[in-house]
């Protein structure tokens, strides 16, 4: 590691930002293609129904209609799924939620496609639907899938739960309800597919995991994987929602059927009803504590509504479950979690991946316990936070990064004192609240979690990063460019990452789980070291001196006599001999066998954690029940800042999404239809966010991280909602246990 | 339905379009004129601001403007903001301030900000928040956009 930083930690300009400010950046919907055909999906109008007949005759006759496709027309695998292959690309015999794709129409124009969609006759026999995960888990509930509705049942015990509650002087319990949340990326699900020669297809995706898209497309079209080439347009946000196939299978099916080019773009309404959401959950939470504030026991029962198909539900359940004790030492724990199929739109991955749900419960309950015991919210947390070397209830031992926890509390205390001193607006009640958060990094033990990336030193001296994972818009490209520039001792301007193309890229694995800077950064530091060694070997051959007598520094090769030769000269000489310097490295997420508990289901536990705290000041209107967050502070340990503006952007955007979770967002079922537009589903606007905002960024190095860095992608939205709920309680004395914190709930209506 | 022909000034150039009258300005920009800087993020319902263009000096959602309404108007899209190869001060300021993440809302936000600054060269934070409230962004939390607009108001660091 260098002792001075050339690129890491700096606030630099994102290289993709210029094209994004001029309209030149091409997202998948923008890529111009000759003879492009239009795809349109006919979706289920029913929550649950048997399909009696699909009559395509009339719609096929409409001029300009090229194909009308149903499940029978899929040549290969008719279902897909990242964890459980339970989701039909087009409905098979039954539909299990409103919005499920039934028929795919390909036409020359939008108008023709729309007419075909209007003309198609699908007869359904509606079936009794179920929406509540607790009801759906019962034996007599309508059964959605052959093996029953409960797809995951976790039961984790640590210590002696009965003894733990006996030791408690105070026991509190409550039920917390979390709503269904739309990831809310601005770029809707889009895919563009072009059928090529010799049974090949090229598909552009807006996806967090293009290599999975490649596998799914190959399986659906019954093609060898190498016949499917997946490329990326610029991605307009993902937030977990694009871990699932975002129309890529259907676009590919359409292109295959017409042997041409097809683009599919969801409308926002389609995205609402047919693409994965954050899991709604009910968490029954019981906490025991001694009079001095020490926690003795936790019992929790969780029901998660994963909707009609599994998506990432079983994996989300793991992080939700593992974080039910938050950042606290609770010696006796019993937690049960159930992931249940219902006839709701499916739920899957979304930023935080279970952790926002668990933290609303634990951080609300900790404040309730503080009130019960007459303690200050910071004081009770101080008495219970995990220390370095202590174990979470999953058996995971925390490393030095847990040193962040007491610092987060110190900072929160100082900020709370300041926020409490702010003058209250006339007619309002003010309150201040805080919450802590722990967010894991990585995919979990015993899940393959390798990430490969490649460097190329071009003859002109630029270093190209063949990044094996997508930048979703959060700025991964900038972060890895900064890391690579640092590792190669080159200016940031000389390092450039290229967009992913499965044709010739190493597999960097899915961009998710707060781990991409960590994974790709580590791989690229290693690749940089190999690249330098390779350069020195070739330079030694050219100069006819042993490579070990040469030193690389600042883009130059230094000979023993101190003379310096620019690297670009060697690159030119090598290019003449058709030699390109490249190096590829794979980083595997570390789960050391000796310290990773092995008695848990596959995918558990997560072993590396990020910590943070947030403080909110609210003003509540006691007559209207409205809540305004006037002041906000986010305190986060990032290990080491790689990109200053990138880290700030992740935190500020995460907080905004967290405030939406706290106050506005919920995808309700009203009059038997799902809320499916931004008219009723309220994303926070610039007017809704606190005017006083502070970032406090801590750097407590993670030994295994690139230059000490950890992840920051998810945790900024994790403590937000409970911090607001705690502030509302402080202001108005009302404990809201169901999100969002609507005026009706504040007023207790 | 009969096609209509409309003429307007698009990014300073006289432009004529022949189209069915039930199509929107957003459709025509993206599909007929190849100007894909204006985006659709809400399904053409005027909820997100991603399709914002400037029409006769005001920012409008191009998904809510039917093509018949643009006869004789002056329209600026994001593609028309650079001047003789120079980035506009708002473009520089958005890059400088780190206000661009996924970028999908960025063209609309920059055009809204331009209309705002053209009408009021020195807006307060509150006026900027009010002005941007029709443009949804899920990435940034808006703070850096507000910083960028203030930066542009002062000329931008690059000037």
Question: Describe it for me?
Answer:
The complex is a heterodimer of chains A (749) and B (159). By secondary structure, chain A is of the alpha+beta class. Chain A folds into three domains: 17-25 and 450-588, Aldehyde Oxidoreductase, domain 4 (2-Layer Sandwich), CATH 3.30.365.10; 36-127 and 184-274, Aldehyde oxidase/xanthine dehydrogenase, a/b hammerhead (Aldehyde Oxidoreductase, domain 3, Alpha-Beta Complex), CATH 3.90.1170; 281-387 and 399-445 and 594-746, 2-Layer Sandwich (Aldehyde Oxidoreductase, domain 4). Helix content of chain A is 27%, strand content 26%. In chain A, strands 3-7-1-14-11-12-13 form a seven-stranded mixed β-sheet, sandwiched between helices. In chain A, strands 9-17-16-15-10 form a five-stranded mixed β-sheet. Chain A has a four-stranded mixed β-sheet with strand order 18-26-27-30, with helices on both faces. Chain B is an alpha+beta fold and 159 residues long. Chain B folds into two domains: 4-80, Beta-grasp domain (Ubiquitin-like (UB roll), Roll); 89-153, [2Fe-2S]-binding domain (DNA polymerase, domain 1, Orthogonal Bundle). Chain B has helices at residues 25-32, 89-96, 106-119, 125-131, 143-153; strands at 4-10, 13-19, 52-55, 58-61, 74-76. Chain B has a five-stranded mixed β-sheet with strand order 2-1-5-3-4, sandwiched between helices. In chain B, strand 1 and strand 2 (13-19) form a beta hairpin. The interface between A and B is large, with 56 and 58 residues.
Tally of discrete structural domains of chain B: 2
Question: Helical proportion of chain A?
Answer: 25-40%
CATH topology call of the largest domain in chain A: Aldehyde Oxidoreductase, domain 4
User: In the CATH hierarchy, what is the architecture of the largest domain in chain A at level 2?
Assistant: 2-Layer Sandwich
Mass-distribution shape of chain A:
globular
User: How many domains of chain A, as an integer?
Assistant: 3
Number of E-state strands of chain B: 5
Strand order of the largest sheet of chain A: 3-7-1-14-11-12-13
Instruction: Report the end-to-end length of chain A measured between terminal Cα atoms.
Output: 59 Å
What's the helical proportion of residues of chain B? 25-40%
Which CATH architecture of the largest domain in chain B? Answer: Roll
- Radius of gyration of chain B in whole Å, from Cα? 16 Å
Assembly state of the chains shown: heterodimer
Give the biggest sheet of chain B.
5 strands, mixed
CATH superfamily of the largest domain in chain A: Aldehyde oxidase/xanthine dehydrogenase, molybdopterin binding domain
Strand content of chain A: 25-35%
């Amino acid at each position: 590691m260098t002792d001075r930083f050339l690129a890491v930690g700096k606030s630099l300009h994102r290289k993709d930002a210029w094209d994004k400010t001029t309209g030149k950046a091409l997202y998948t919907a923008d890529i111009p293609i000759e003879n492009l055909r239009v795809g349109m999906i006919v979706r289920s109008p029913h929550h649950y129904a048997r399909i009696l007949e699909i009559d395509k005759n009339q719609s096929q006759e409409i001029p300009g209609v090229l194909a009308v496709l149903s499940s029978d027309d899929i040549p290969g695998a008719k279902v897909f799924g990242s964890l459980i292959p339970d989701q039909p690309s087009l409905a098979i015999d039954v539909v299990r939620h409103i919005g499920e794709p039934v028929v795919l129409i390909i036409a020359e124009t939008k108008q023709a496609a729309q007419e075909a969609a209007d003309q198609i006759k699908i007869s359904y026999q509606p079936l009794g639907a179920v929406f509540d995960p607790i009801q759906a888990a019962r034996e007599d509930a309508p059964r959605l899938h052959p093996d029953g509705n409960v797809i995951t049942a976790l039961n984790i015990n640590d210590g002696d739960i009965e003894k733990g509650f006996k030791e408690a002087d105070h026991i509190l319990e409550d039920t917390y309800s979390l709503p269904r949340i739309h990831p809310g990326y601005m770029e809707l699900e889009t895919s563009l597919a072009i059928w090529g020669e010799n049974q090949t297809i090229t598909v552009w995706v807006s996806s967090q995991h293009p290599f999975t898209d490649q596998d799914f497309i190959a399986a659906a079209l019954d093609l060898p994987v190498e016949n499917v080439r997946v490329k990326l347009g610029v991605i307009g946000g993902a937030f977990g929602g694009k871990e699932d196939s975002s129309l890529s299978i259907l676009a590919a099916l359409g292109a295959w059927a017409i042997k041409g080019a097809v683009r599919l773009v969801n409308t926002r309404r389609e995205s609402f009803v047919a693409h994965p959401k954050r899991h709604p959950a009910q968490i029954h939470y019981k906490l025991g504590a001694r009079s001095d504030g020490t926690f003795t026991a936790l019992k929790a029962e969780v029901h998660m509504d994963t909707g009609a198909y599994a998506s990432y539900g079983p994996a989300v359940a793991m992080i939700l479950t593992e974080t039910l004790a938050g950042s606290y030492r609770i010696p006796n724990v019993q937690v049960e979690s159930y992931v249940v199929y219902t006839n709701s739109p499916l739920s899957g991955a979304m930023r935080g991946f279970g952790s926002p749900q668990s933290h609303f419960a634990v951080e609300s309950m900790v404040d309730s316990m503080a009130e019960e015991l007459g303690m200050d919210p910071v004081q009770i947390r101080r008495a219970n936070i995990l220390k370095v070397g202590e174990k979470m209830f999953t058996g995971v031992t925390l490393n030095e990064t847990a040193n962040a926890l007491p610092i987060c509390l110190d900072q929160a205390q100082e900020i709370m004192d300041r926020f409490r001193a702010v003058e209250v607006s006339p007619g309002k009640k003010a309150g201040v609240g805080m919450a802590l958060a722990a967010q894991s990094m990585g995919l979990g033990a015993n899940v393959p979690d390798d990430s490969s990336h490649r460097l190329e030193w071009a003859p002109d001296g630029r270093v190209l990063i063949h990044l094996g994972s997508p930048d979703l818009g959060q700025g991964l490209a900038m972060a890895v460019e900064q890391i690579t520039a640092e590792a190669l001792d080159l200016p940031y301007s000389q390092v450039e990452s290229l967009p992913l193309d499965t044709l010739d890229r190493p597999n960097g694995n899915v961009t998710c789980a707060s781990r991409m800077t960590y994974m790709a950064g580590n791989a690229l530091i290693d690749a940089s070291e190999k690249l330098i060694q390779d350069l020195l070997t070739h330079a030694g051959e050219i100069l006819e001196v042993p490579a070990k007598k040469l030193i690389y520094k600042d883009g130059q090769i230094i000979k023993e006599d101190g003379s310096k030769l620019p690297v670009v000269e060697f690159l030119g000489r090598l290019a003449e001999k058709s030699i390109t310097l490249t190096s590829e490295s794979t980083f595997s997420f570390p789960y050391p066998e000796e310290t990773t508990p092995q008695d848990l289901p596959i995918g558990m536990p997560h072993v590396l954690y990020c910590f943070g705290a947030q403080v909110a000041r609210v003003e509540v209107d006691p007559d209207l029940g409205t809540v305004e967050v006037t002041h906000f502070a986010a305190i986060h340990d990032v290990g080491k800042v790689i990109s200053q503006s990138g880290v700030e952007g992740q935190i500020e955007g995460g907080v905004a999404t967290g405030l939406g979770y706290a106050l506005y967002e919920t995808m309700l079922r009203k009059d038997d239809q799902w809320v499916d537009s931004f008219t009723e589903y309220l994303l926070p606007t610039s007017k809704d966010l606190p005017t006083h905002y502070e970032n406090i960024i801590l750097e407590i190095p993670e030994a295994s991280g690139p230059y000490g860095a950890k992840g920051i992608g998810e945790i900024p939205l994790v403590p937000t909602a409970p911090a607001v709920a705690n502030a509302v309680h402080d202001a108005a004395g009302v404990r809201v246990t169901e999100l969002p914190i609507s005026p009706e709930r504040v007023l207790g209506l | 339905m009969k096609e209509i022909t409309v003429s307007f000034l698009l990014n300073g150039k006289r432009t004529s379009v022949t189209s069915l009258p039930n199509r929107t300005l957003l459709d025509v920009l993206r599909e007929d004129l190849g100007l894909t800087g204006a985006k659709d993020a809400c399904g053409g319902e005027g909820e997100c601001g991603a399709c914002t263009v400037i029409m006769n000096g005001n920012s409008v959602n191009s998904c809510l403007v039917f093509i018949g309404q643009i006869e004789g108007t002056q329209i600026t899209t994001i593609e028309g903001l650079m001047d003789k190869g120079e980035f506009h001060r708002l473009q520089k300021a958005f890059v400088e301030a780190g206000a661009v993440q996924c970028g999908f809302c960025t063209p609309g936000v920059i055009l809204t900000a331009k209309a705002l600054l053209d009408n009021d060269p020195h807006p307060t934070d509150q006026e900027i928040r009010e002005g941007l409230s029709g443009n949804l962004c899920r990435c940034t939390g808006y703070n850096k956009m507000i910083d960028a607009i203030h930066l542009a108001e002062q000329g931008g660091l690059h000037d």
